[in-house]
Amino acid sequence: MTAATEVVDDAATSATNTFYYLLIPALVLGFVYWKLQRRRFVDLANKLPGPRGYPIIGNAMDFLGNSLETTERFIQFSFNYGNIMRFWIFHKLVVFIADPRDVELILGNSTHLDKSEEYRFFKPWLGEGLLISSGQKWKSHRKLIAPTFHLNVLKSFVELFNANSRAVCEKMAKENGKTFDCHDYMSECTVEILLETAMGVSKKTQDRSGYEYAMAVMKMCNILHLRQAKIWLRPDWLFKITKYGKEQIDLLDVIHGLTKKVIKRKKEEISSGNKKYIESSINPEEKSVTTAFKSLKDDLDEQDENDVGQKKRLAFLDLMIETSQNGVVLTDEEIKEEVDTIMFEGHDTTAAGSSFFLCLMGLHQKYQDMCVQELNQIFGDSDRPATFADTLEMKFLERCLLEALRMYPPVPIIARKLQEDVKLASSGHIVPKGTTIVVATVKTHRLETYWENPDVYNPDNHLPEKAAERHFYSFIPFSAGPRSCVGRKYALLKLKIILSTILRNFKVYSDIPEDDYRLQADIILKRADGFKIRLEPRRKNIMAS
Ligand code: HEM
Predict the structure, then answer these.
(1) Domain ranges of the chain
(2) From ligand 1's centre to the CA of 344, what distance in Å?
(3) Which of 67, 291, 357, 361 could form a disulfide bond with 368, CB atoms 3.0-4.6 angstroms apart?
(4) ipTM of this complex prediction, to 2 decimal places
């Protein structure tokens, strides 16, 4: 060995030694810092009220069982622990909140826009669509999609809402006098409406795939809920080899099959020069589908209020395809993700909301009669379709609908990942950064401090003077703040037309008292015992006319 190579070797050895001398303290320091942070995290977490857990697994056992059992267990927990509940699922901290003052800190703040990790189970289905995307992608897509639910666009859908409402009445007329589950009818109807309106696919080109799609979505929601509730189904590699993993592949075939077909047809239609611009303007008195959420203004209100003059607009899928064709960054995959998102969010929520409404009308005949009285005043003896202006007159029906959404919010919880520590306004507790925070809408809507007799169905809870007095975040069926539901106005308008059409045609009965409802949160809140109702035609010839 030469002197020169010895010098080089010595230098290398000393560099290696220096590296280790620096690395080891850095690692130790890093570990100590992580430990201190973790200790702080754990200390803060353990100051929050919640059930005692076991070493290592924490409260994971509380999440075992089917979705009906876990929903019922969580309702019981919420009685025991009040408005803040802490759970450990192994090392992961999950905190449920319900007080509107705390909810406002999360939903009203644009720091906490990122969805929690649990939403990743939606990815094989919805990809990076609006519901789960984050950062710049979410921001730019929201800006693109929100105007496709502009009031002008919604007004142009009224005719289709009417035609489909009438069609579902004709289908349900076959159940005359029998007790049946109305959810499947509502589900199929809302899928078909979405296809015709937001997707612009004409009825002539539709087939039974709407029904098959709705049924596949229901089963997918079940699987997604199971993945959240059952810890062993969480790791992808384990999930894939279970029967649920295999079933998911088949269900996604049906779901994506329909969305791909819809996009293909729309592209063909547009390339044959058939682009449907919507031209209409809003009268000042028609500035909103409802005034129910006017204290919680969001981007949807701003776009309607700031609208001046007559503008050409495109419905959702037309705009998506035009944007992509104009070369703005929107890939075919992104279009598919957004179509899947709108199809899911837009149908299952309204199907559940309308089914709860019908059961409640069946149970509370007095309120049903009052709705029908209001409808008689609007329509008299005529069975003409509803206009947009008519829906603004359906004030009592709207209150009945809002009350159904209060007691049985179709989206019962909303989860976010905390981006920084949050000091809760209700108790002063600090919830540390990194926590999965769950807004328990279903509980917020039943707090005695904010609602008189919260377990009693009372449409007067939504009288404008009562709503104005209440905390704005005490009624959040559509979430609130920058990440509120983009389809809120669409949903309310569509529901008013479907439900008023049903009540004009049928007297609705339901015999099961609310105390016997078996609630199940399969992502969307449903009744495990089924949405059983009975119908009786109001006029003999109504469906024949
Ligand atoms: C009664 C009917 C509906 C209810 C109760 C409802 C409720 C909600 C709620 C609570 C959220 C927030 C979810 C979360 O943050 O995890 C949401 C988001 C969303 N909803 Fe709805 N929704 C309804 C109907 C609709 C309709 C008809 C559409 C579309 C046609 C729609 C499209 C969306 C989209 C795209 C999002 C994600 C928005 C974003 O993250 O920026 N929803 N909805």
Answers:
(1) 48-537
(2) 9
(3) 361
(4) 0.99
